[in-house]
Amino acid sequence: MHIGFIGLGNMGAPMARNLLKTGHRLSVCDLSAAAVAALAETGASACDSPAAVARSEAELIITMLPAAAHVKAVYLGEGGLLDQVRPGLLLIDSSTIDPLSAREVAAAARAHGNPMLDAPVSGGTAGAAAGSLTFMVGGAAEDFERARPILAAMGKNIVHCGDAGNGQVAKVANNLLLGISMIGAAEAMSLGVALGMDARVLAGVINSSSGRCWSSDTYNPFPGVLDDVPAARGYRGGFRSDLMLKDLGLASEAARQVGQPVFLGALAQQLYQIFVAQGHEALDFSAIIHLYNKDNHP
User: Fold this and answer.
1) Tens of pLDDT along 161-218?
2) Rounded Cα distance, 45 and 34, in Å
3) Contacts (Cβ under 8 Å, ≥6 apart) of 28
4) Report field, pTM of the whole predicted structure over 0.85
5) Using CA atoms, how far apart are residues 128 and 136, in angstroms rounded to an integer?
6) What is the rounded distance in angstroms from the CA atom of residue 118 to the CA atom of residue 103?
7) Do the beta carbons of residue 92 and residue 119 sit within 8 Å?
8) What residues are labeled active site?
9) d(CA 203, CA 201)
10) H or E segment and range at residue 39
11) Residue 275: which of 234, 228, 240 has the closest Cα?
12) Degrees to nearest 5, angle at CA 286 with 283 and 291
């Protein structure tokens, strides 16, 4: 299949490469000429704008963009996708944005005659490179089935979450819980070690007891507990703290829009805001444990 792909950042570029590896033809676009050139070297066709992607022979277009403002500009802006794309072509947005914005863009696409899915991902840059992402997909069931083989070239777990916007709902709710649980694991581990317990022994108790959670048993934030996690390599790699802050902000805004309280989510957002403001935005989000250090820095 000929696929248009817009957005070749840390997530989009490896996703696009996996599509090429499985035999699809790609027309690609990004603000970074270097990112476009790198994909062109592996067989993609370079385009200089989203409109050029829309005018290509692409049978389906995927976008992976930083924020809702970028998604709206690419789809709804003058000379954007919906100004140029032919009716009937399936659109998939894998950006992480708020659910109401996703629904707004999907409604505009439908009005233009284009089915659209929101399909944010979980799995980080490692999952994008390995083709093992989880896709949380919102949109019509028949469009989901059309997209499934394409998404399967980039991910291992493809979940239909319901109508338009529900993929973003699943992503926002999951990462809200992830941010809260990581802070909980950091607090519990820090307390136990401060009281004189060995970190590995404490983690073993938690992970075989009722406190067990992914943030403790798979991604423990305390150094020396697990190998091959960011805590074992100076909190480099993984899921950046500024991206966790972004997702917690999306959760807070979505909650505000529907009048739903998120007490712990609001606190988690403030803690990550402090951590990022201290200059640690590039560290993995598990580095939040350093707020519990007496010297208060990594």
Assistant:
1) 999 999 999 999 999 999 999 999 999 999 999 999 999 999 999 999 999 999 999 9
2) 14
3) 4, 5, 6, 8, 16, 36, 39, 40, 44, 45, 46, 47, 53
4) yes
5) 14
6) 9
7) yes
8) 171
9) 5
10) helix 33-40
11) 240
12) 85
